[in-house]
Amino acid sequence: MRTFFIGLMQENLNLPPCNLSIQIRDNNEYVFDIVRKKYVRLTPEERVRQTFVHFLVNEKSCPVSLMSTETQMKLFNTIKRSDIIIYDKNSNPLAIVECKAPDVKITQEVFTQIARYNINVKARFLIVTNGINHYCVKLNRMNNKYEFLQEIPNYFQFFSE
Fold first, then answer.
1. Which long-range contacts (CB under 8 A, 24 or more apart) does 69-78 make?
2. How many domains does the chain have?
3. What pLDDT shows up at residue 76?
4. Mind giving me the DSSP string for 43-75?
């Protein structure tokens, strides 16, 4: 088993470069998830998820200790997994992130998927990314509608928005 760090994994992604720890096992690539603290199979979606986690930590000041990845939830009698959830220090969800592979277009269906997940999570912010295009919406509690934001807030702005 070989382990190496690579910063070129973000090639073709619209995200800042970061160093990902990659292992080769049985001819498969695995990437170290800094949130779950373990190696997971590297797929195109996982590449986006891990690069986006690094973006949230390094560029948006989100504490790794207040994030979860691949969180299992029960939704309408089925088991689903949310890609990333960002919490406050009291374990209340602030934002939920849905990651798609770079070749997957962000459509209304993707927003419907994350809105369904948010029935359980109850986060105020929803973020959708395919590593190239990123969208963030905020729930306006006054009229119970989502508003698109110009950019993804940093961690402390989640409290003031």
1. 69/33, 69/35, 69/36, 70/36, 70/40, 73/117, 73/120, 73/121, 74/120, 75/116, 75/117, 75/119, 75/120
2. 1
3. 76
4. -HHHHHHHHHHHHHHHHH---GGGEEEEEEEEE
- Is 52 inside a domain boundary? yes
The whole-number pLDDT of residue 11 equals: 63
- Residues (pLDDT < 50) of the chain are 8-9
pTM of the model: 0.90
- Domain of 75 in residue numbering reads as 44-160
Other C-beta atoms lying within 10 Å of the C-beta of residue 94: 20
Does any domain span residue 126? yes
Distance, CA of 90 to CA of 113 (rounded, Å):
26
Find the CATH number of the domain harbouring 93: 3.90.1570.30
